[in-house]
Design goal:
- The protein is α/β, with parallel strands linked by helices.
- It is built from 14 helices and eight strands.
- It has helices spanning about 15-25, 40-55, 75-80, 95-105, 120-125, 160-170, 190-205, 210-220, 220-225, 230-240, 245-250, 250-260, 270-285, 290-315; strands spanning about 5-10, 30-35, 70, 85, 110-115, 135-140, 150-155, 175-180.
- Strands 3-2-1-4-5-6-7-8 form an eight-stranded mixed beta sheet, with helices on both faces.
- The longest helix has 30 residues, at about 290-315.
- Bound molecules: nicotinamide-adenine-dinucleotide (NAD).
- Nicotinamide-adenine-dinucleotide (NAD) binds next to helix 1 and strand 6.
- Nicotinamide-adenine-dinucleotide binds next to helix 1 and strand 6.
Length: about 325
C-alpha cells in the first residue's frame, strides 16, 4: 500500500529549496522551512507568489498553498513532525555531514532524509553515522516545481524500503523519479550535462562560436529532440528502419572517431574570466527575473504540449 505523506521539512531555502517548498505545498503537504538567511520570510512569499500560477497551470489547486507553509526558527523545529526531509543546503560534504548528523537525531524515526545534492554521493556524508538506512539522494533539476525528473540515488547503507518510499513520495508530488543502481559523483544527469558543457566551453574558448549562438544550436536541435526522445531512442530512430544496429555499425563508427578530437578546455583564471565576460555580453543586459520567467514560460509550454501529445498517442492506441 502506498504510504500517505502529510508533512515535509525543507532545510535550506535557496534556489532549490524554495521551489521544492512551493511544489510540496501545492500537493497539499504541510511544509516547514528552515534557513538562517535573514530574508527568509520575504524569499518564501516571493517564491510562492511567483510559482503559484505556474503550479495552477499544471492543474494543481494552489488556493491554500501559502497557508500550509510555516517558517521554522531552526532545523530541529522544522523536522520535528516531518514524514520527509528535503535538504538543500550548500554543496559541501562537511556541511552535509554535520547537518545529517543533526537530522538523524531530530527527525522522527520514520522520516525519510533526502538530499538535493548535485554531485556528492550519500555515502560520502553518512560514513560516520551509525544508521544511514533512511538517507539518500533525491536530486532534482532546476526548478524542481517545473522539471519532472528526480534522480533517486541510494548510498551504500540506504535501505531498500527507503528507496521505495522515496519513489512513492516523488510520484506523490508529481515528479518522475528514476532510481540509479550505483553511486557515481555527479550521478547521471549532471555527468551528461557536464559532458556537453565541457565541449560547449571548449568551442567558445576556441572562437568557433559565441555563447548565445551555441545556445541557439542546442535549443533548436538537441534540446528539442531530447524533450521527446533520449539519446538512445534518438539514435535508434536515426538509424532508420535498421535501427540502432545500423546506426552503430555505420554512422556510429565515424562518430566514434570524433571522441578523440573532443575538447578539454583550459579554464584557468584567465580563460574562466574570458568565458564569464562572453556569457555576460550575451545575456547580461537582461535581469535574472526576466530571463528566468521566460525560461519557465517556455518550459511550461513544452510540458503542456508533451502532455497533450502523450494523451493523443494513448487515445490512438486504445
Ligand atoms: N541550483 C541548481 O541548479 C541545483 C540543481 C539541483 C540540485 N542542487 C543542489 O541543491 C542544493 C542547494 O542548492 P541551491 O542552488 O539551492 O543553493 P543556494 O545557495 O541557492 O541555497 C542554499 C541555502 O542553504 C542555506 N543554508 C546554509 N546553511 C544552512 C543551514 N545550516 N540550515 C539551513 N539552511 C542553510 C543558505 O542560507 C541558502 O539559502 C545543493 O546541494 C545543490 O548542489 C542545485
Amino acid at each position: 500500500m502506498t504510504e500517505s505523506f502529510t508533512t515535509a521539512a525543507v532545510v535550506g531555502a535557496g534556489t532549490i529549496g524554495l521551489s521544492w517548498t512551493a511544489l510540496f505545498a501545492a500537493h497539499g503537504l504541510t511544509v516547514r522551512v528552515s534557513d538562517p538567511r535573514p530574508d527568509l520570510a520575504e524569499a518564501v512569499d516571493t517564491a510562492l507568489a511567483e510559482s503559484a500560477p505556474q503550479l495552477a497551470q499544471q492543474g494543481l489547486d494552489v488556493r491554500d498553498m501559502a497557508g500550509r507553509v510555516h517558517l521554522a526558527p531552526d532545523v530541529a523545529e522544522a523536522v520535528r513532525d516531518a514524514d520527509i526531509v528535503q535538504e538543500n543546503g550548500p554543496e559541501n560534504v562537511g556541511f552535509k555531514r554535520e547537518l545529517f548528523t543533526t537530522l538523524v537525531h531530530e527527525a522522527p524515526a520514520h522520516a525519510l532524509l533526502l538530499s538535493s545534492s548535485s554531485a556528492i554521493c550519500a555515502t560520502a556524508f553518512t560514513d560516520e553515522l551509525e544508521d544511514a538506512a533512511r538517507i539518500l539522494i533525491g536530486h532534482p533539476f532546476n526548478p524542481p516545481h517545473l522539471v519532472p525528473l528526480v534522480e533517486v540515488v541510494p548510498g551504500e547503507r540506504t535501505g531498500a524500503d527507503s528507496v521505495a518510499r522515496a519513489v512513492d513520495f516523488y510520484r506523490f508530488v508529481g515528479r518522475v523519479p528514476v532510481v540509479e543502481r550505483k553511486e557515481i559523483p555527479g550521478f547521471v544527469g549532471n555527468r551528461l550535462q557536464n559532458a556537453l558543457s565541457r565541449e560547449a566551453i571548449y568551442l567558445v574558448e576556441q572562437g568557433v562560436i559565441g555563447p548565445d549562438e551555441l545556445d541557439t544550436v542546442v535549443v533548436n536541435s538537441l534540446g528539442l529532440r531530447w524533450a521527446t526522445v533520449g539519446p538512445f531512442l534518438g539514435a535508434h530512430l536515426g538509424g532508420g528502419p535498421g535501427g540502432y544496429r545500423h546506426m552503430a555499425e555505420h554512422i556510429g563508427m565515424s562518430m566514434q572517431a570524433m571522441w578523440d578530437v573532443l575538447g578539454h578546455p583550459e579554464q584557468g583564471p584567465e580563460q574562466r574570466e574570458r568565458l564569464i565576460q562572453a556569457v555576460e555580453n550575451s545575456y547580461g543586459s537582461r535581469s535574472y527575473g526576466e530571463l528566468a520567467q521566460e525560461r519557465d514560460r517556455k518550459q511550461l509550454a513544452v510540458l503542456s504540449a508533451l502532455d497533450n501529445a502523450s494523451r493523443n498517442v494513448e487515445e490512438t492506441r486504445s
